[in-house]
């Protein structure tokens, strides 16, 4: 990607401004990653709690993790493809 040429009348930006802009641009991708992580963690926690409550270890944990992974990947792919 070619660097944008500065406008002669524009003030140069500080490093803090450049860093803030980079964070703003990466935010949609970070949101997609946290959605994936949250789905897997939520499914695992729900499965663990159900295993403890119903004494069926490890089946609900495995099922919850599998469901969390599938749901997280579907949402991750949906969000990332929408960004392009």
List the defining traits of the structure above.
single chain; 84 residues; mainly alpha; 2 helices; 77% helix
* Biggest sheet details: none
Structural class of the secondary structure composition? mainly alpha
Shape: elongated
The helix-strand sequence is HH
Q: What is the average of the pLDDT values?
A: 88
What is the number of helices? 2
Helix content: over 70%
State the separation between the terminal residues, measured CA to CA: 15 Å
Give a count of the beta strands, DSSP E runs of length 2 or more.
0
Strand content: under 5%
Detail the poorly predicted runs.
none
Multimeric organization: single chain
Which radius of gyration do the C-alpha atoms yield? 21 Å
Short précis:
This protein is an all-alpha fold and 84 residues long.
Description:
With 84 residues, the chain is mainly α. It has a domain at 27-83. 77% of the residues lie in helices and 0% in strands. It has helices at residues 15-54, 59-83. The model has no long low-confidence stretch (mean pLDDT 88).
Topology:
Blueprint: H1 15-54, H2 59-83
Helix pairs in contact: 1-2
């Amino acid at each position: 990607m070619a660097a944008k040429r500065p406008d002669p009348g524009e003030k140069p930006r500080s490093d803090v401004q450049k860093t803030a802009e980079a964070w703003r641009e990466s935010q949609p991708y970070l949101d997609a990653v946290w959605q994936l992580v949250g789905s897997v963690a939520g499914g695992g926690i729900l499965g663990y709690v159900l295993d403890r409550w119903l004494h069926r270890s490890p089946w609900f944990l495995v099922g919850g993790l599998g469901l969390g992974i599938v749901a997280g990947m579907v949402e991750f792919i949906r969000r990332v493809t929408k960004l392009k």
